[in-house]
Amino acid sequence: MAELLLELFCEEIPAGMQPKAASELGALLTKALDGLNPSDVQTFYGTRRIATVLNVDAEIPARTVSERGPREGAPEKALDGFTRKHGVTADELTLENGFWVLNKQLDPVSAESRVAEAVPDLLWKFPWAKSMRWGAGSNFSWVRPLRRITCMLDGKVVPFSLARDGDDAHGLKSSNLSEGHRFLAPGAFEVRSADHWLEELETRSVIVDADKRRDMIRTGVHRLAEQQGITVVEDEGLVDEVSGLVEYPVPLLGRIDDAFMDLPAEVMQVSMRINQRYFALRNADGKAAPFFAFVANLPFKDGGKLTIAGNERVLRARFADARHFWDLDRKTKLADRVAALDAVTFHAKLGTQGERAKRISDLAGTVAAAMGLSAEQIEQAKRAGLLSKADLTTGMVGEFPELQGVMGGYYAAHDGEGDAVAKAVAEHYMPRGQSDDTAKAPVSVAVALADRLDLLAGFFAIGETPTGSGDPYGLRRAALGVIRTIRDNGLRLDVTDLFAKAANGRTGGELAKLPDFMADRLRVQLRSEGERHDVLAATLAGGLDGDVVRLLARTSALSDMIQTEDGKNLLAVAKRAANILRIEDKKDGPHKGTPDASLYAQDEERALADGLNSAVPAIETALKNERFTDAMQAIAALRPTLDRFFDAVTVNAPEADIRANRLKLLATFRTTTALIADFGQIEG
Predict the structure, then answer these.
(1) Inter-residue contact 548 to 540 (CB < 8 Å)
(2) Is residue 441 assigned to a domain?
(3) Which pLDDT score, from 0 to 100, does residue 27 have?
(4) Do 366 and 304 have their domain in common?
(5) Domain containing 267: what range?
(6) One domain, residues 319 and 349
(7) pLDDT > 70? residue 542
(8) Cβ neighbours of residue 257 under 8 Å, at least 6 residues apart?
(9) How many CA atoms lie within 13 A of 528 on its CB side?
(10) According to the model, what pLDDT value does residue 514 have?
(11) How far apart are CA 301 and CA 304, in angstroms?
(12) Considering only CA atoms, which of 40, 31, 44 is closest in space to residue 2?
């Protein structure tokens, strides 16, 4: 096999676009060179290049390809068109299975010529999310001006040009040249192989392996933090972003002026991250440390002293802005800002943020009461709900929308609203994402649930529901937030009842679909946890149980049961019974009603009838008392009786009345299993 290296060197690529572009380059090149059996594909990317290395066959061997043409007897024009298209005569066609077929012998194609043919077209059509043209006289576009194309096959240049149809594409041609670090190693160098390319780049202060750059950033920042006895606020997204901004990462540590250390830690962190791509640090007690870490793009002879000093000056200016908002916002109480929410539109069909705050307040009180909280806590929940969106009018949240809720909590505490209220305002957005913690404080939980219940009920009421991958209002995330908050806190709530109250008198729209939507989100959550979502689907067949905790306990008991030997056999028997009924019901069904005991012709029928008569009340009582394991044991205990029934009894007896009675008995068994779940939806 031959080694192919393709590097595309250009001006700085936005960090967020680099990983996808490198992946697409590898995928598109693999597809374009399919006949060469590409393998061992590696991709590389950085701020000024994307590249791929792969192995290919030396050539596409000689082969015969078949093109099917018109049918025998087709109009002569159809046959003439086919022959003209392929530049052949009718004598060169053969008749196969009623069709005219052209069998063409193709000569071998070298890897070099195939690469030279495929790459220019690939680059002209490369799917950048955003691209640009530069200079004059060419329509060729790239994410940023493309400067070099390195294309090597087994150490030799694959010659090609991007020029086509009179467009010179800025004179871009393939070569064996690449470039190192912009400042530390400017200028071109020759490439002999992929390994040589990697080694030379590193020698010239370019770490082209993204994973290695990320490791250098993590390790370097953590080492600097440990030297000061502090820790890094973990932020993998920031690591990824910074990795895309530098070619040779050099972590450095700067100091924060004491004058800014009374700012909220979240304000400092967000300001550093958003504005400067700095890493926040914490003391052992979890409070903000008077340091920040950042990553330079080259080493310094002075150890980075001047660079650190420059970044400290920049940060002082950023924190001075934050200080301005912090001081100004606290001059107006959070409660006094609620009125201003009436001028902020939430949604044209759902009113203002002020109206929404009032709905959340009322609903938070309702949720708190359903949670069994005290009268004081109910009032706290209502108060926190009313204040929950007031920080949207503050300068700090206007500057940093990521701090919604967080700043409200700080301002509420400053205003003397009480710990529970301030904490609920701060935490009502939790969880913000899949990996975030849920609220745990009772009042915070009530407000967090109220916020999401109002959101879901409101948008479903006006018919604004998620479609495909589109979810502009974050309704899937809100539903998962409700589910996780309830599960994590073990809350015994009737979600369907709360949704009805959250609808606030609204009807129609897509409200009727909200329970199914929640059930689907629950299935998604269980699937992400590696749980059996088919068992949940079976349990949900009778409709969504509004008590999520009870539903999951029931699902867990069923899952445990079907993993036992009796459970597996019962599942198989239940599916057998369902199949028989499905077939026979189509003939002369449905076979409903109570079986006639006088028509039982065999002891096995009577035993099954007796077993069902005993099992049904036991199952119903166990389910009512939430003794789900007992309910599963009661249904599983029927397995031996069912085995004997199917071994000894012919359901489709020749006597019509006996057959109908036996089908009614099976229908009774199906109805009994339905008390537990729809066994037909369980896989296996």
Answers:
(1) no
(2) yes
(3) 96
(4) no
(5) 210-329
(6) no
(7) no
(8) 312, 316, 319
(9) 10
(10) 92
(11) 7
(12) 40
Residue 541 has pLDDT above 80, yes or no: no
Q: For residues 166 and 128, state if they share a domain.
A: yes
Query: Which of 176, 203, 230 is the C-terminal boundary of a domain?
Result: 203
Measured over the CA atoms of residue 543, residue 549, residue 555 and residue 557, the dihedral's sign is: negative
Domain count of the chain?
5
Tell me if 537 is assigned to some domain: no
> Rounded distance, CA 324 to CA 321, Å?
5
pTM over 0.70, yes/no: yes
Residue 168 is assigned to a structural domain of this protein: yes
Query: Domain boundary at 299, 329, 359, which?
Result: 329
What distances in angstroms separate CA 129 from CA 125, 241, 243, 523, 677, one per listed residue?
Answer: 12, 17, 20, 33, 48
Q: What CATH number is attached to the domain comprising 98?
A: 3.30.70
What is the DSSP code string of 30-48? Answer: HHHTGGG--EEEEEEEETT
At 164 the pLDDT is 92
DSSP state of 372: T
Q: What is the pLDDT of residue 684?
A: 64
Dig out the tokens for 498 from the structure: 């709360």
- Among all chains, which residue has been given the structure tokens 């949604």? 347
| Residue, of 536 and 179, whose pLDDT is higher | 179
Q: Which of 454, 446, 448, 453 is nearest to 376 (CA)?
A: 446
User: Do residues 656 and 587 make contact, with C-beta atoms less than 8 angstroms apart?
Assistant: no
**Do 458 and 482 have their domain in common?**
yes
Task: Rank 94-98, 405-409, 431-435, 557-561 by mean pLDDT and report only the highest.
Answer: 405-409
Question: Could you tell me if residue 293 is inside a domain?
Answer: yes
Lowest mean pLDDT among 23-37, 145-159, 664-678: 664-678
In this prediction, residue 26 has a pLDDT band, given cuts at 50, 70 and 90, of very high
Structure-token pair, residue 421: 């209220």
* Stretch 386-390: mean pLDDT: 97
406 and 350 within one domain: yes
What CATH number corresponds to the domain at position 443?
Answer: 1.10.3210
Note the pLDDT of residue 536: 82
Give pLDDT tens digits for 174-233: 999 999 999 999 999 999 999 999 999 999 999 999 999 999 999 999 999 999 999 999
Tokens of 543: 């409709």
Helix, strand, coil % over all residues of the chain, rounded to 5: 55, 15, 30
φ, ψ (nearest 5 deg) of residue 398: -60, -35
Pair 67, 53 in one domain: no
Amino acid occupying residue 23: S
**Cα 114 to Cα 11, 117, 118, 153, distances in angstroms:** 28, 5, 6, 11
Most confident residue range from 372-386, 461-475, 612-626, 654-668: 372-386
Residue 427 to residues 4, 403, 448, 480, 629, Cα–Cα distance (Å)? 53, 11, 7, 16, 36
Does 268 lie in the same domain as 417? no
Q: DSSP assignment of 216-232, as one string? A: HHHHHHHHHHHHTT-EE
Mind listing the pLDDT tens digit for each residue in 67-85?
Answer: 899 998 889 899 899 999 8
Number of H helices, E strands in the chain: 25, 19
96 and 174 belong to one structural domain:
no
